[in-house]
Amino acid sequence: MKSFRNWILIVAALCFVGAVQAQIDSSPHKVHYVRVEKNVKLEVLDWGGAGQPLILLPGLGDTAHVFDSFALKLTLRYHVFGITPRGFGTSSAPPPEPLNYSADRLGDDVVAVIDTLRLDRPILAGHSVAGEVLSSVGTRHPDKVSALIYIDAGYPYALYDETHGDLVLDSIALRTQLVGLHIGTLPREPQEVDDLLKEVQKVESDLQQRKDDLAQLSKPNPIDNPVSVAVLDGQREYTRIQVPVLAIFNVPHSPPFRRTMEDQVKAFETQVPHAQIIRIADADHYIFRSNEADVVRDIEVFVKSQRNTK
């Protein structure tokens, strides 16, 4: 009886391993490991394809394998790559400190991959929090990319809304000012006091909006992964993006989320007037899965429009 039970456990374990492997490697690709910093290597997937290089960047907690199915729909027109960011999957995981996972550090990683693979001005397409990486590269290294595609990724971490602000980014800015405030650096001019009060008032307004939104939402789950916390704590304000932009938004069902989405659309229209904006209803946050055909079509139309303007 014991040997039979052990056999069952072995079979179950093998099935589990097979299921995990199928989940990780469910589409044909080559795997490279690219050094981006001393002792830091990133997993880079190469799905092949013909045409202009296109790099897919996953959202928080995901690896490049999240695009295994989606990438294959793009290989007819693009040479498609995916990058698993530091801290996740089989990429290196430096200590979970904001400097190791700041938006600009993650952006520098992508630039290092572009340079190492000698890619000629690829298109960057990112999902969710990867929007901050797109904005970092597009803002600081516009010569490295030909266009940015935000796949439900155009939220405040990607473009700071100068009209409505953002609780996380405004809190980071206030915290930075308060950390440097002690008896020897207290404001000495009324204008300095006014500047600090403006930051305090921004956070106060953001907190009130957050309180109002929570009254309409179910209690959100905490984010307790240290690397994820470091990524979120490493956000910075991007307010202008000069390279061509396509921002695809999922239209949320919840009124608070829909308001935030529309605020971000307005921010893009105002602060990045050349951006092309697309809203897709009846989707979900993983819009490249729930509405795969729509997103593939929208990318192709956008890229063609950019070629026609050259």
Looking at this protein, list some descriptive labels.
310 residues; alpha/beta; Rossmann fold; eight-stranded mixed beta sheet; 45% helix; globular; disordered N terminus
Brief rundown of the structure:
It is built from 11 helices and 8 strands. With 310 residues, it is α/β, with parallel strands linked by helices.
How would you describe this protein?
It contains eleven helices and eight strands. The N and C termini lie far apart (73 Å). The chain has helices at residues 2-24, 68-72, 98-101, 103-116, 131-140, 167-179, 190-214, 226-233, 255-271, 287-290, 292-308; strands at residues 30-37, 40-48, 52-57, 78-84, 123-127, 147-151, 245-250, 276-280. Helices cover 45% and strands 16% of the residues. Strands 1-2-4-3-5-6-7-8 form an eight-stranded mixed beta sheet, with helices on both faces. It has a domain at 26-161 and 237-308: Rossmann fold (3-Layer(aba) Sandwich). It is an alpha/beta fold and 310 residues long. α4 (103-116) crosses α5 (131-140) and α6 packs antiparallel against α7 (190-214). Keywords: Hydrolase, Signal. This is Alpha/beta fold hydrolase. It comes from Acidicapsa dinghuensis.
